[in-house]
Amino acid sequence: MTALAGTPRLLRLGLRRDRAMIPAWVLVLAVFVLSTMSSYQKLYDTQAERDTFTAKINDNAATLALYGRVHDATVGGLTAWRMGTLGAALVGVMTLLLVIRHTRAEEETGRLELVGSGAIGRRAPLTAALLVAALASVLLGALVALGLAGQGGTGALAFGLAWAGGGLLFAAVAAVAAQVTENARTARGIAVAVLALSFLVRAAGDASGAHWLTWLSPIGWLEEVRPFGGDRFWVLLLPLGLTAVLCALAYALVERRDLGAGLLAARLGPASAAPRLRSPLALAWRLQRGSLLGWAAGFLVYGLAIGGIANGVDDLVGDSADTSELITKMGGQSGLADAFLAASFGLMGGMASMYGVQAALRPRSEETSQRAEPLLATATGRLRWAAGHLLIALAGTALMLLIAGAATGITYGAAAGDVGGRLAEALGGVLVQVPAAWVLTGIAIALFGLLPRASQGAWAMVGAFLLLGQLGPVLNLSRPVMDLSPFTHTPKLPGGTMTATPLIVLLAVAAALVAAGLAGLRRRDIAS
Description:
By secondary structure, the chain is mostly helical. α2 packs antiparallel against α5, α14 (280-310) packs antiparallel against α17 (336-360) and α17 (336-360) packs antiparallel against α20. 75% of the residues lie in helices and 0% in strands. The longest helix is centred in the C-terminal third of the chain and has 35 residues, at 382-416.
């Protein structure tokens, strides 16, 4: 039996298990690219407008940090700028989640040991996982290249290859992370930390003008491909070379470690827990604190970037009436800066709901990995156990928005010379998003309690509401369709009228969903 024996079967199994996850990721990212291209075609229909916009973008440190530098003032070039670095990071998240799901997570639950007892080679599981991620990356790259082909075939190909190369690179990062630790959650944290560091190094290089910093970042390499602005295909050799090195390292570690073990040995904990850890809430905090801190850091960076952009949004938009109209439509106000902030806070609310769903579904992962049953065999009741995770999900969601709002208000206020006033406006704008984000947490809890096998459907709801919020104004969707999203009903602050009624209704909906989920959990079988 060879080291790769059974790889085709494991590949088919992986594709079957991800038959919903991969199409969802690919289609959502492809739609964002196509909608961005369509928006720039409508908003800046003359080359003079695009040249003016490009010049202002490249002079704004905050936008440079968030999106990178514009290398070409065509519609294709602006699309590549807007979706290039952020999109590459999202593609990296997709592939690292896929690889760790099919490697370390399978080992942690014991399923890989069962599979490995058959005619399966030592390298087959890792190879199948990498192939699943590679197929997803190539499919996504091909779709976006076809969608942008009308803007220039060579530039579209460069953009698609850059995204596919980023997916392969971070799949390889995840492959190494999966060998380092015995825990899938820690492996994901390591891989995400590498991705985040890569993004931050790129952001620092673009914002400061220190071009050498950009070349130290793998995401910076993808930016330097410059689709539609030079199409430097040779830069792709850098991520592909690093991918090959990391894959070779991952395979070497697979050969040298025991199944289920990691390069770093797990630390044995104390025989008995400290008093502060002897409660379901304390256990939930212990399990979720790393994720909470990571999300908080991301919201801090995003808030700083939005605050830096807000003070110069009038200059960035310039004379483009269509852009002003779109921002006002999304933000709901006549003042351009207020409308931009209101739209940004709406997006922050959607992003915060992603954390809430992740934290709320943590009990489901504990249940399916069979760690919940021994805990619930003690005097700990189901509701107390679930309530600890629920409290962290709800409080964490509000905390994310507070951090982002404070960072936005302080940065914006410092630039405008009114820190106190801008900070108060920003905090008000983010806090009204909390009830809508809690509705998504309530949906996750309701599915967990009532339909546990369908609990991952909460992510589909998050994606649908984010798409409605971002694409609805661009596509001029009807009001009944837009009203399906809870974020449509939040007051558009700052600058708008504060209305308490929709917030009370959203809180009532969230409470009803949570109550239904907890009632279902109380009655159903565990691990069902």
